[in-house]
Amino acid sequence: MAYDEELAARIRDLLREEGGVVEQRMFGGLAFLVGGHMAVAASGQGGLMVRVAPEDTDALLAEPHARPFEMRGRELQGWLRVDDAGVRTPEGLEPWVRRGVAFARSLPPKDG
Q1: Confidence tier at 60 by pLDDT (50, 70, 90)
Q2: What domains can be seen in the chain, in order of their start residue?
Q3: Taking the chain, what is the end-to-end CA distance rounded to the nearest angstrom?
Q4: CA distance 86 to 105
Q5: Can you tell me whether residue 25 is helix, strand or coil?
Q6: Is the full-model pTM beyond 0.85?
Q7: pLDDT band at 1 (very low <50, low <70, confident <90, very high)
């Protein structure tokens, strides 16, 4: 499944005023990186991937439409998936994008 182009465009619009955002295809989707760190991605599996502070993962999983991000059958702290229904509206999408960007900006920039 290809990532949702319309979702990617909506993320791009939200990040228009942010400095240092780079788009990169990864994980079968389109990721938006800040300082070299993935903040959010229009997932190739549908919905949104979001990077958050690992210590916030469990609390954010209580949010509607949020679920753990799994890689090779293992849940990763600091990574979430938000189903399509949770990012369908601007009010649903924007807080997740802001969370991802805030966390990416909290990390030291990657060289390169």
Answers
A1: very high
A2: 5-106 (3.90.1150.30)
A3: 30
A4: 23
A5: strand
A6: yes
A7: low
Give the pair of three-digit tokens for residue 17.
């005023």
Does the pLDDT value for residue 101 go beyond 90?
A: yes
Inter-residue contact 109 to 23 (CB < 8 Å): no
Cα distance between residue 66 and residue 72, in whole Å: 19
In terms of C-beta density within 10 A (0-12 exposed, 13-18 middle, 19 or more buried), how is residue 85 classed? exposed
Q: Are strands 37-42 and 48-51 parallel, antiparallel or unpaired?
A: antiparallel
The letter for the amino acid at 90 is P
* Strand residues in 1-112 grouped as ranges (E): 21-26, 29-34, 37-42, 48-51, 66-71, 74-82
Cα-trace Rg, the chain? 13
